[in-house]
Write a structure and sequence with these properties.
By secondary structure, the protein is of the alpha+beta class. The protein is built from four helices and four strands; from the N terminus they run H-E-H-E-E-H-E-H. The protein has a four-stranded antiparallel sheet, with helices on one face. Strand 2 and strand 3 form a beta hairpin. The longest helix is centred in the last third of the chain and has 19 residues. The protein is elongated.
């Protein structure tokens, strides 16, 4: 899908989602006949995140896709985007952190601490 052709008219994500520190906003594009809020929520919950807000925009992309704005309870949305893609949905992070280095470093550090604990 070509993201340069996305034109959603008057939609301002800041009006839909007031600022929350530990949350991320996604734009999901899908064909109208493929839209299912339960599929979107299941895909996001598969990566241990939760949907805080889900809004469907009335405007369509030039290709006819509908735009769904979703707010997650996670600041890093990369795993949610991958999960949505596994379900056949195209997602764009609007303001989420996409860096997972911090998460991987923290997970590695905790795993090493656990291994040290188990050796005692």
């Amino acid at each position: 899908m070509n993201t340069t052709n996305i034109n959603l008219g008057n939609i301002d994500p800041e009006q839909l989602f007031p600022f929350v520190e530990d949350a991320s906003n996604l734009l999901i594009l899908c064909a109208p006949e493929e839209f299912s809020a339960s599929v979107i929520c299941n895909a996001i919950e598969d990566c241990d995140a939760h949907v805080i807000n889900l809004n469907v925009a009335a405007d369509r992309t030039p290709e006819g896709d509908m735009a769904v704005y979703v707010r997650l309870n996670r600041r890093v949305a990369e795993s949610a985007i991958r999960s949505l893609e596994r379900f056949g949905l195209y997602a764009i992070a609007l303001d989420a952190d996409t860096e997972t280095d911090y998460d991987m470093a923290t997970a590695r550090e905790r795993a090493n601490e656990l291994l040290r604990y188990l050796e005692i």
